[in-house]
């Protein structure tokens, strides 16, 4: 459940950032990232969706690695030294 809530929070944050990028272009006429200037509107949508997927994959990989490294059963030595 915690992971789902964090993914929702991350996706919400990503939407806010993407809206700001588009808003800056709307106000100034300049894209924050020059790559976006050369992409058509449909490709921009695909680009933003792909970036969202990649960020979520990295987040989940980080959670898996973090849980693997700091698993309490595997790291009994670490917790013994902290409690001592």
UniProtKB/TrEMBL annotation:
Belongs to the AIG1 family. Keywords: Membrane, Transmembrane, Transmembrane helix. It catalyses: 9-hexadecanoyloxy-octadecanoate + H2O = 9-hydroxy-octadecanoate + hexadecanoate + H(+); 12-hexadecanoyloxy-octadecanoate + H2O = 12-hydroxyoctadecanoate + hexadecanoate + H(+); 13-(9Z-hexadecenoyloxy)-octadecanoate + H2O = 13-hydroxy-octadecanoate + (9Z)-hexadecenoate + H(+); 13-octadecanoyloxy-octadecanoate + H2O = 13-hydroxy-octadecanoate + octadecanoate + H(+). Pfam families: Far-17a_AIG1. This is Uncharacterized protein. InterPro entries: ADTRP_AIG1. The keyword Membrane applies. It comes from the Eukaryota. The lineage of its organism: Eukaryota, Metazoa, Chordata, Craniata, Vertebrata.
